[in-house]
Design brief:
Strand order of the largest sheet: 2-3-4-8-5
CATH topology of the largest domain: OB fold (Dihydrolipoamide Acetyltransferase, E2P)
CATH superfamily of the largest domain: Nucleic acid-binding proteins
Distance between the termini: 52 Å
Shape: elongated
């Protein structure tokens, strides 16, 4: 009887973990934790755990009545399941304002994980001439909405601030950017700016970094922290602190629903 209960306990642990991972994948909550490229492995892991659970449950015990993989006491069972179930129930599926601000705002593209600086232009030929490069047509990556605004992300304007050629594509042009509202605690001498923030992820939520650009509005905007807003206005890149900084001079700021993908990748 003890062997049967032990085998059932070990099988139950694997089953609970498999069910929880399946829930995260099928409910879409996994999008709050993992890069899209890794989400399929959550489903694969869930399937493997469920198969192992079934196999362990159906395993015939050895002559001694015990199976090496099936020894499971009450305390190990509780330690392996209660924290998982509690985290599933209690953990939020998004970052709060405190967590975002504690991670530090990225306002310089060089500080973004995975950033690679643009390549230097080709060296001149022997006669001093420079081979013409073929530049990508901006219309291929600057998509405009029906109202004529360039649909951009915060990270696009951050890149543009550090790259002159890209900056020319955005500067003094109408843009529409969606992000979360946070008060500007610095770089706000006139009190008319706030940070428009998105979280940039390389792998998973553990490495998420807040990417922030400034929005200048008249009158000053005051909303609950982390409110999702859609900003329409003119993209500018004034020199502040010795470097170009992206600042949207807002024409309109409207609350909006969170996008399907809350992270940038």
């Amino acid at each position: 009887m003890t062997g049967i209960l032990s085998r059932f306990g070990a099988s139950s642990v694997l089953m609970i973990w498999g069910i929880v991972l399946s829930y995260y994948y099928l409910s879409g909550r996994v999008a709050s934790y993992l890069h899209p490229a890794f989400r399929i492995y959550t489903a694969i892991s869930a399937g493997i755990l469920l198969l192992l659970s079934l196999a362990l449950l159906l395993t015939v015990p050895s002559e001694s009545g015990k199976h090496g993989l099936s020894r499971m006491g009450v305390l190990p069972f509780l330690l392996l399941t209660i924290p998982l179930l509690a985290a599933t129930k209690l953990s939020p599926s998004n970052f709060g304002a405190t967590a975002v601000m504690n991670r530090g705002m990225v306002d310089n593209i060089a500080d973004l994980p995975g950033f690679s600086p643009p390549q230097d232009p080709a060296l001149p030929n022997a006669d001093g001439s420079v081979k013409d490069g073929t530049m990508m047509d901006p219309s291929l990556y600057l998509k405009r909405n029906a109202a004529g605004y360039i649909a951009a992300e915060t990270v696009d304007l951050l890149y543009a601030a550090g790259e002159p050629a890209m900056r020319e594509d955005f500067e003094n042009k109408p843009v529409e950017v969606t992000g979360q509202f946070l008060p500007a605690l610095s770089g706000n001498p006139n009190g008319d700016r706030f940070n428009l923030t998105r979280l940039f992820v390389m792998c998973c939520a553990a490495d998420a970094r807040p990417v922030a650009i400034s929005v200048q509005s008249q009158p000053a905007t005051d909303l609950p922290k982390m409110t999702w807003v859609k900003v329409r206005g003119m993209a500018t890149f004034p020199v502040e602190g010795g470097k170009h900084m992206p600042v949207i001079v807002a024409e309109s700021i409207t609350e909006t629903d969170a996008p399907e993908e809350s992270f940038l990748y």
